Amino acid sequence: MKRNITKAIFPAAGLGTRFLPATKASPKEMMPIIDKPLIQYAVEEAMACGIEEFVVITGKYKRAIEDHFDSAYELEEKLRNSGKKKLLEEINKMSHVNFAYIRQRVALGLGHAILCAKPFVKDEPFAVILSDDVIDPECFLLQEMIRVYDELKCPVIALEEVPKSEVSRYGIIDGVLDGDVYRIKDLVEKPKPEVAPSNLAIIGRYILTPDIFDILEKQKPGAGGEIQLTDALRALLNRRVIYGYLIRGNRFDAGDKLGYLKATVDFALRNKELAGDFREYMVQRLKQ
Ligand code: G1P
């Protein structure tokens, strides 16, 4: 049976201002947690859910992403000759994967980035993955969202409860719990805490249907002067039901300095080679 969701879009054209100067000339998606760039975690998460086609929306100074997923003959040859089999396997892990790159010429916002993928997605449902939201692989968030889509055939967006003081950093929904999902009643991009309809924030995983493109084509700039995906989803609510799926596990906002540090510590504590020594160091360090 043909699977429903086989394509994923990875918007990666943002300016990464929260990490300047590190992101002045290199993409924030290439910042590593331990030894793997953020975008590779995101691609591996999609692969684990059966996604077969990967579309990266890139922009200026993002060439490193294409190089990262390309072959590296010289390096491979060196690793082969020096018997570094494990490293060779690691860098070749994705050599069979096909990537398409679409360049977003001007950073007009997340909604516009998604619209750039329209010619590739055509008329299929698809996943959107924001690689600076790092998801604990053990909570199978995307897999669960695909399951919900397969059952309900409606767009599904990932949600997390956040402190009221942080709502202005996210898209926030109003919704009612319906079984294990929220039926969304409204969405607002980056509201002030006083007017936020809830503390249920949209996090960077979406299963979308192609009817979002018609709306994005007409979408006017919203918060921050950008074409917002949240605003387009709000307009889509007039046409169809949208569900929200609450994450059961940890998410790290690796686009933020503290979130990035937390992700690094968390992954280090679960890394077979590092966990023991790292834990010991942390315990010692925190006693000082
Ligand atoms: C984007 C979305 C926002 C969502 C967030 C999740 O915002 O516009 O609705 O809550 O991703 O990470 P950004 O972080 O790009 O400002």
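^ 1-O-phosphono-alpha-D-glucopyranose complex. The chain has one domain: 7-255. The chain has a mean pLDDT of 93.
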